[in-house]
Structures are given as structure tokens and as C-alpha cells.
Amino acid sequence: MKNFELFLYNYGISIFYVKIGLSFLFSFLITFFSIPTITKISRRKNLMDEPGIRSSHIRKIPNLGGIAIFYSIGICISIFAYELFDLYKFLFASLIVLLYVGVMDDIVVMRAYKKLVAQIVVSLFIVIGSDIRIRSLFGLFGVNEINYFISIVISIITFIILINAFNLIDGIDGLAGGYSVVCSALFGISYYRLGEYNYPLVILSVIIIGSVLAFLYYNLSNYRAVKIQALCF
């Protein structure tokens, strides 16, 4: 990889922008071509989302689209933003736990307290293991720097609220996916403005956008044979 970066540098080409373009392209294509296979398996094994109060569907829909998104993100991050594995050591372990819980819940319907326990564990991984937490309120309510213990508690509660809030908007086609694209774009712009150290996070944002856009192609489709929705956590 370093030799390739040196090659591009000699021709005045920024490796960062090459990664941006390739990560978007590959994340989109991997998700796009993975979903039809997942749809067939979901129908064959009857892994379908039943119409209900929180669903806008009037018929059964395959509900394992999140697997294709995770599959794409996992591959593309390993290639284009591998620095994140060193920067946030427990981040991807957390994502795997959430994926497992989401798949299990869609197959056997997990009890609420079990999902809550998993969400707490994941939040602990992220907040304590990866040290991703709210450190300051920047003067809000007259508070700036937060005590370490209080910071951990507030951050864990915030992560749990965000996870469940995201789940609650999953019943309408395109809503959760569209929200993901908008949020990822805004985060990507913010990371880019913060400087080169945050470029791997910019690439992560682009990978998420590419994967979700491919998912939305199927999620918003009017054709029953290809329609799919994501799993919830």
C-alpha cells in the first residue's frame, strides 16, 4: 500500500481523494450486488418482516438488508480506512455485537431487556474501550469540562438513546436510510474540516453513504421481488 501511495505522490495525486472515490464505488457495488442474494435467502428461509403497527408494508418483506451494509462496510474499511482499527480498538467489536443482536431479533424476536443489555455492553465498549465520549458541554448550562465518571455515564446513556431512536424510525421505507446518508455526509464534512488526522473517519462516512445508497435502491423499489429492509438493533 505504501508503494502505491508513493507512486501516486510522484504523479501529484492525493491518495486521500483516490480512497474517497474508490471507497464510495466499492461500498456501493458490494452492497448492490449482495442484496439480491440476501433477498433470495430471506424468502427461501422465510426470514421476513411481518406487516404491523410500526411498519408501512402491507405484505411480508425480507428484513436482512443490514447484513449487506455491514458486509460492505467491513470490507471497505479494512482496505481504505484500516487506521480506524488502531484508533478505535473496540469500535468494530461493538458493531459486530449490534449486528448479531439485530439478526437474532429478526429471527427469534429477542426480549427487550436482552437487547438493552447488549446495547449497554456495546456502549461500554465504545465509551471506555475506544474512549469515545462526551468530554465537555462547552458552556451549556454553565458546564465545560465534565468529570470522567460523569462523562462515561452521560455518554453511555446518550448512545443507548441514539440506538433506540434510530430503531424507532425504521418502519417507513427510506426514512432510516435517508437519515443515515444525511448524518454521514454532515459528519464527513465536519471530520474533513478538522484536518488530516480525521481523514479515516471521512472515508468511513463515505463508505456508509455508498452502502446505504445501494440499500435504498432496493428499499425504495416498487418491485416486490427486490424490495428489502434493514434489520433493527
Account of the protein in words:
It is built from nine helices and two strands; from the N terminus they run ααββααααααα. It has helices at 2-10, 15-44, 65-80, 84-87, 91-108, 112-129, 148-168, 175-194, 199-219, and strands at 48-49, 61-62. A two-stranded antiparallel sheet has the order 1-2. The mean pLDDT is 82.
Secondary structure blueprint with pairings:
Elements: H1 2-10, H2 15-44, E1 48-49, E2 61-62, H3 65-80, H4 84-87, H5 91-108, H6 112-129, H7 148-168, H8 175-194, H9 199-219
Antiparallel strand pairs: 1-2
Helix pairs in contact: 2-3, 2-9, 3-5, 3-9, 5-6, 6-7, 8-9
Query: Strand pairing plus helix content: what structural class?
Result: mainly alpha
General shape: globular
> Major sheet: order of its strands?
1-2
The rounded distance between the terminal residues' Cα atoms is 35 Å
Helical residue percent band: 55-70%
Number of helices: 9
Q: The biggest beta sheet, please?
A: 2 strands, antiparallel
Task: Bin the strand percentage.
Answer: under 5%
Mean pLDDT across all amino acids: 82
- Low-pLDDT stretches: none
**What order do the SSEs take from the amino end to the carboxyl end, as H and E?**
HHEEHHHHHHH
The total strand number stands at 2
